[in-house]
From TrEMBL:
<keyword id="KW-0488">Methylation</keyword>
<comment type="function">
    <text>Guanine nucleotide-binding proteins (G proteins) are involved as a modulator or transducer in various transmembrane signaling systems. The beta and gamma chains are required for the GTPase activity, for replacement of GDP by GTP, and for G protein-effector interaction.</text>
</comment>
<comment type="subunit">
    <text>G proteins are composed of 3 units; alpha, beta and gamma.</text>
</comment>
<feature type="coiled-coil region">
    <location>
        <begin position="1"/>
        <end position="28"/>
    </location>
</feature>
<keyword id="KW-0175">Coiled coil</keyword>
<dbReference type="GO" id="GO:0031681">
    <property type="term" value="F:G-protein beta-subunit binding"/>
</dbReference>
<protein>
    <recommendedName>
        <fullName>Guanine nucleotide-binding protein subunit gamma</fullName>
    </recommendedName>
</protein>
<feature type="domain" description="G protein gamma">
    <location>
        <begin position="1"/>
        <end position="69"/>
    </location>
</feature>
<keyword id="KW-0449">Lipoprotein</keyword>
<keyword id="KW-0472">Membrane</keyword>
<dbReference type="GO" id="GO:0005834">
    <property type="term" value="C:heterotrimeric G-protein complex"/>
</dbReference>
<dbReference type="InterPro" id="IPR036284">
    <property type="entry name" value="GGL_sf"/>
</dbReference>
<dbReference type="GO" id="GO:0007186">
    <property type="term" value="P:G protein-coupled receptor signaling pathway"/>
</dbReference>
<dbReference type="Pfam" id="PF00631">
    <property type="entry name" value="G-gamma"/>
</dbReference>
<comment type="similarity">
    <text>Belongs to the G protein gamma family.</text>
</comment>
<dbReference type="InterPro" id="IPR001770">
    <property type="entry name" value="G-protein_gamma"/>
</dbReference>
<keyword id="KW-1003">Cell membrane</keyword>
Length: 69
């Protein structure tokens, strides 16, 4: 995409992106990291990677054994 654009168009696009980013409110990492940790801990009970998947609901479980004749 950038190959087809002039330097002026690229700079204009970058300026527009920076103007969008400046409007974003910023939060300190100390606050957001705490919120993320709390959310992860709250969701842990429903996480199949932590809790596991019941054998009867596992879509990847082999339906039958392999029979070699």
């Amino acid at each position: 995409m950038a190959r087809d654009m002039s330097d002026k168009e690229i700079l204009k696009m970058e300026l527009e992106q920076l103007q969008k980013e400046v409007k974003n409110t910023r939060e300190p990492v100390s606050k957001t990291a705490k919120e993320i940790c709390e959310w992860v801990e709250a969701q842990a009970a429903e996480d199949p990677l932590i809790k596991g998947v019941p054998e009867d609901k596992n879509p990847f479980k082999d339906k039958g054994g392999c029979i070699i004749t």
